[in-house]
Amino acid sequence: MVSLWGSKNGEEQGDGDGRASTDGDDGRQPPRHGDAGGRNPDERTRLLPPRNDGFLDPDDPAVSPYNLWTVRALRYISVLFLIISFLWWVLLLVSIFISPPMMHSRGSGFFDFSYTTLTVGNLLIAILFFTVPSKPMEILTLVVSAFLLIDMIIILAVPRVRLEEGWVGIASVIWAAVIALYNVMTDRVVAWGKKEEEERLTGRHESRRTLREWCAVLTATVIMVVMTVIVILLTATLILRSRDASLEPPGKRYLVDGDKYEIHLACVGNVTFDADGKRTPTVLLEGGENPVEDSMDDWVYAAYKNGTIDRYCYYDRPGLAWSDNAPSPHSAGMTSDALSEALALAGEQHPWVLVSNGVGGIYSRIFASRHGREISGIFLIDTLHEDLLYRIASPSRGFLLWARGIISPLGWNRLPGAIIKGRTREDRTYGKSAYQNGKFIKAKLQENLVAGSLTKNEVVQARNIQSKKTPLVVVSSGVEVRRDNEWERKQEDLTKLTKNLVAWDVVNAAPHEVWKTAEGRKILEKRLGQLVRGTS
Fold it and tell me: What are the Basic and acidic residues biased-composition ranges (predicted)?
């Protein structure tokens, strides 16, 4: 492009269309905005009077890096990248609730969503503040790029994390890193173009900024500082997650549901036979609101050591402890089928005595109804009734779980727990801090989404086809019974699941986790022994 040179002492000069004109003699004014066919201002359509030295005024809108096709092309490319990233962001948002084909994440699914959100934010900032490059922006964008590259290396290098993230998570973090580096390059090119155009059209590089430009630089810098903090937290949480991935499970993981995800199953003790040569029942534990390793495993292991039972097995529902998350939506019946498959793969055989607590009773009852002849007893410890599923299916609870999941990659409670409180890998995987885990939150969200529909239908059907001859024990929390009349009525109704009720015990001082009191543990071990030995 050819620059417009001013004239001195009335000398003739060329206008934007190549025509000759003289300033001041014929009264013609320099072209204003909208002249020259209404096109945007450039160096051929100056908006301010020319200076005596032949250069444009630095404040003339015609002095713009957009005069360079390279800068314009980068902006168009940025817009295209933003559209692609936003469409990917929408797809990942939907996949949290309904897994599209080939897009199931065996992890939480919140990390890839976080990286894509970061990518969209990066591109938006780059486009909004495209023509006001600054040194702070360049440095902060470079820092973000560096941390995203570290995240990419961690995800690719740690086998368990790589497996959980899958191709969706890997693609998301690589895309985030590439876009961050692209923004660094774009910022440098625009700064170069701005300098080149200023020197060409005004004769010097303009170091001053208008108030509007300073406000833009300040706003962009503040936003980038926030994004830098976010990406640092993401990296710290990912490092902690990699550390947790090194904790080996006590049992073994089994691929189920067409090799879509893994279920962790562990067994303790040896197979024994009674005097008649029949196989002694194996106790099969179903955890409640928390992983079974942090709840019932303690008192059941004590029963095993005391000789009350000879063998027990336990598993982690999808998303809990060492098990992967299942595709969404995922109901209790689907979990029951996954458990059946894992038991078959492990070579475990019936008969079973099913022991469950809390919401785990829903899963045990469905499993019992689908394996009627293989079940030697059902043991319900203050379990949830199907008519109370609405308590975990409420939309408000679902929204809170979703919100917790979205911010979980920032480690807002996991990082302080590890740094300040000294939480261990065991705490975060299956212990007191397991609820902070993104997989755990995703599992609870999946549970919430179908509790009032698919799961409710499955457990109602299970009640109708449940064998009425199966021995049944119900132990209820005295604290919960006194606190909630509806809970008491539903506990009584659970005693009618079969016509072979062995006992219904209400442990007065026991909380929902009945085994946390000495009396509760005593009653639980006694009733468990009765079911396993077939005595009343």
Answer: 16-46
- b/e burial code for range 89-126 (CB count within 10 A of at least 16 → b): beebeebbeebeeebbbbbbbbbbbbbbbbbbbbbebb
Q: DSSP letter at 273?
A: B
The token pair at 215 is 């406000």
- CA torsion angle 203 209 211 214 (round to 10): 150
Cβ-based neighbours of 109, under 8 Å, separated by 6 or more: 92, 95, 96, 325, 438, 442
Please give the angle made by the CA atoms of 99, 356 and 365, to the nearest 5 degrees: 70
pLDDT for the residue 536: 57
Neighbours of 85 (CB within 10 A): 23
Return the residue matching tokens 């006590």: 250
On average, the pLDDT of the chain sits at 88
**pLDDT tens for residues 425-461?**
999 999 989 999 999 999 999 999 999 999 999 999 9
**Chain position carrying tokens 């096109």:** 39
**Buried residues in 411-421 as b, exposed as e (16+ CB within 10 A):** bebbbebbeee
Q: By CB neighbour count within 10 A (0-12 exposed, 13-18 middle, 19+ buried), where does 285 fall? A: buried
Q: Residue 243 above 50 pLDDT?
A: yes
| pTM metric for this prediction | 0.85
* Cα atoms in the 13 Å half-sphere on the side-chain side of 390: 4
Band of pLDDT at residue 487, cut at 50, 70 and 90: very high
Structure-token match 């299916």, residue found: 393
The DSSP bridge pattern shows strands 352-357 and 375-381 to be: parallel
Q: What does the pLDDT read at residue 384?
A: 97
What are residue 285's DSSP bridge partners?
314, 355
- Mean per-residue pLDDT, 41-67: 66
Task: Give residue-wise pLDDT tens across range 270-323.
Answer: 998 888 888 999 999 999 999 999 888 899 999 999 999 999 999 999 999 999
Please report the pLDDT score of residue 18 as a whole number: 38
Residue 275 phi, psi dihedral angles, 5° rounding: -65, -25
Residue 44 has pLDDT above 70, yes or no: no
**Which of the 8 DSSP states describes residue 247?**
S
Question: Hey, where are the domains in the chain?
Answer: 1-63, 73-245, 252-397+435-533
List the beta bridge partners of residue 20.
14
Report the alpha-carbon distance of residue 282 to residue 269 in Å, rounded.
9
Q: Is the pLDDT confidence value at 35 over 50?
A: no
SS3 474: strand
Third-level CATH fold of 252-397+435-533: Rossmann fold (3.40.50)
Query: Can you tell me which residue has the tokens 């543990």?
Result: 521
Q: How far is CA 142 from CA 139, 146, 226, 416, in A?
A: 5, 6, 14, 27
Q: Residues 6 or more apart from 429 whose CB is under 8 A from it?
A: 244, 247, 321, 322, 437
